[in-house]
Amino acid sequence: MSTATIGFIGGGNMAASIIGGLLASGVSAANLRAGDPNSDSLQRLRELGDITTSENNGDIIPGCDVLVLAVKPQLMKVVCEQIAADVQTGKPLIISIAAGITAASIERWLGSGLAIVRCMPNTPALIRCGATGLFANSAVSEAEKALAENILSATGLALWVDTESDLDAVTAVSGSGPAYFFLMIEAIQQAGTELGLNADTANRLALQTAFGASRMALDSDVDAAELRRRVTSPNGTTQRAIEIMEEGGFRTLMSTALRGAADRSEELGRELEGE
Ligand SMILES: NC(=O)C1=CN([C@@H]2O[C@H](COP(=O)(O)OP(=O)(O)OC[C@H]3O[C@@H](n4cnc5c(N)ncnc54)[C@H](OP(=O)(O)O)[C@@H]3O)[C@@H](O)[C@H]2O)C=CC1
Ligand SMILES: O=C(O)[C@@H]1CCC=N1
């Protein structure tokens, strides 16, 4: 369990998910801080645990071993430039969770010589079921890599990727991924009610089925395709549904959608690097 002092710049949805996961993993609230001008966001974080918060980022940076940059990509430049002097004084390990923003851009805005880990977590971090891809710039030592991995793995799966551009694909698969599964759950719930189930029953069946399928796939020694085949009786109900999904272009749609997410990640980096 990490005993490093970890500060968050930006205390919104994703910071709350990571902080919640860290607290649930046993990290002490005394080691967690957050800066955010939005007092409602800070209040929400304090409801997770007795962490130190400030509406002024500069208050929380001195003494931090790790600084997690958790503001929207569009704000990264201005926020980095605001905190650059404090960061250069303390030289904490920087962990950015911002979609698309490259380590080179962060280094340009914060000043050179900093150890920067870029990562792409997801919101199930809150319940320690997150999935994170990580990439380290060349200034990151082995000890700092271990520290970053230790922090993110407290919130779920944490995997290093080979190249920085792989983070665009990670963003498409797992960063945005919870939203695809939530959409699928919404669609199954709606279809269930259209078939005559009451909304509560449709909800509970859809949620438990999503949970059961995911848990079974995680625990299984065969792949998802084989698990799907085991549900699909010849000429039965599943076969009819799956054929309709395949004929409707489900796989192509998913492939195009994830390509869109990855392209947007890369585009965000390019759009904002020159700002
Ligand atoms: N949400 C997700 O599922 C994921 C998000 N990310 C990344 O995480 C980052 C944050 O996203 P998310 O948590 O969804 O966004 P949120 O808008 O929920 O959180 C950002 C927070 O930063 C605050 N903020 C605004 N200006 C400053 C400032 N100058 N200093 C400090 N804080 C400031 C915002 O306040 P206010 O609301 O008043 O603007 C808000 O509370 C993004 O870069 C995103 O790409 C990565 C993985 C998954
Ligand atoms: O939608 C977004 O841009 C962020 C990054 C991944 C999930 N949410």
TrEMBL record:
Which GO terms of the molecular function aspect are on file?
A: pyrroline-5-carboxylate reductase activity
Which enzyme type, at the first EC level? oxidoreductase
Q: Give start and end of each Pyrroline-5-carboxylate reductase catalytic N-terminal domain.
A: 5-100
Which reaction equations make up its catalytic activity?
L-proline + NAD(+) = (S)-1-pyrroline-5-carboxylate + NADH + 2 H(+); L-proline + NADP(+) = (S)-1-pyrroline-5-carboxylate + NADPH + 2 H(+)
Gene3D superfamilies linked? NAD(P)-binding Rossmann-like Domain (3.40.50.720), ProC C-terminal domain-like (1.10.3730.10)
Q: What is its EC number?
A: 1.5.1.2
* Alphabetical UniProt keywords: Amino-acid biosynthesis, Cytoplasm, NADP, Oxidoreductase, Proline biosynthesis
Record's subcellular location: Cytoplasm
Recorded metabolic or biological pathway in which this protein acts: Amino-acid biosynthesis; L-proline biosynthesis; L-proline from L-glutamate 5-semialdehyde: step 1/1
SUPFAM superfamilies, per database record: 6-phosphogluconate dehydrogenase C-terminal domain-like, NAD(P)-binding Rossmann-fold domains
Residue stretches making up the Pyrroline-5-carboxylate reductase dimerisation domain? 164-268
Establish whether keyword Aminoacyl-tRNA synthetase is in the entry. no
Q: Does the keyword Oxidoreductase apply?
A: yes
Function of the molecule: Catalyzes the reduction of 1-pyrroline-5-carboxylate (PCA) to L-proline.
- PANTHER family linked to this entry: PYRROLINE-5-CARBOXYLATE REDUCTASE (PTHR11645), PYRROLINE-5-CARBOXYLATE REDUCTASE 3 (PTHR11645:SF0)
The family assignment reads:
Belongs to the pyrroline-5-carboxylate reductase family.
Tell me which NCBIfam families the record gives. Answer: proC
Q: What is this protein called?
A: Pyrroline-5-carboxylate reductase
Underlying gene: proC
